[in-house]
């Protein structure tokens, strides 16, 4: 595994922080198919974050071994690593052309994500959290509901799918979610299936979550493209650092 110094991770607590970064092809027990994941590990990580991108969860071009997808979680992966987390970004399995809503709530997909969590626990004893954005919130919610208690220690939903799609968060059995759960949404998110006012009501359904919180984010600049795409408010454009910091602070110390 190639050792990479993340330049802007210098001087945290007076120490240089190193992260190991590598694209991994994870065996998912489906013939020759594999699940591409991008893994960033570092000593003394306080948690391992499994990042679940939205859309079809493609990597984009892989340049110098690194994914170039513009998805909020993919492009923010180093910001999460800067908070002393191990980071695993999960992409689309190699035998799939799409990663649509119905697949994201399927038992097959839940099994794929379970393989990622097992890999995370082989890398570190740190607690594992799922962090999804947009369609990735459908995956994260479905998996956390399906798994036995203790599989993961928490769930973060950003730019949640709220309506008109299979697996929209409130349509799932979220009353069964028994882990700390954070819901984060941008106030100006104009994606018609990810409405801020509907996202604000998700926590009302989290009847079993020991700790839960909704945070409405404001800030950023220069959104471009489709309102449901990653470079718009939906993707916390030019507000990534602040959004990652508030998520990270809550994971470190969950509070209602």
Q: Which regions contain 5 or more consecutive residues with pLDDT less than 50?
A: 1-16
> N-to-C SSE series?
EEEEEEHHEHHEHEEHEH
CATH architecture: 3-Layer(aba) Sandwich
CATH class categorisation: Alpha Beta
DSSP strand (E) fraction? 15-25%
Gap between N and C termini, in Å?
Answer: 39 Å
The CATH superfamily turns out to be Alpha/Beta hydrolase fold, catalytic domain
Q: How many helices in DSSP terms?
A: 7
Q: CATH topology, what is it called?
A: Rossmann fold
- Shape field: globular
Considering DSSP H and I runs of 4 or more, what fraction of the residues is helical? 10-25%
Strand-pairing-aware structural class = alpha/beta
CA radius of gyration is 17 Å
Number of domains: 1
Q: Which helices and strands occur, and which strands form pairs?
A:
Layout: E1 3-5, E2 18-27, E3 34-41, E4 47-52, E5 62-63, E6 66-67, H1 72-75, H2 77-81, E7 85-90, H3 101-104, H4 107-123, E8 128-133, H5 135-146, E9 154-158, E10 181-186, H6 196-199, E11 212-217, H7 240-252
Parallel strand pairs: 4-7, 4-8, 8-9, 9-10, 10-11
Antiparallel strand pairs: 1-2, 2-3, 3-7, 5-6
What does this structure look like?
This protein is of the alpha/beta class and 256 residues long. The chain has one domain: Rossmann fold. Helix content is 23%, strand content 23%. It has 7 helices and 11 strands. The strands form 2 sheets. Strands 1-2-3-7-4-8-9-10-11 form a 9-stranded mixed beta sheet, sandwiched between helices. Strands 5-6 form a two-stranded antiparallel ribbon. Mean pLDDT is 93; it is low at 1-16.
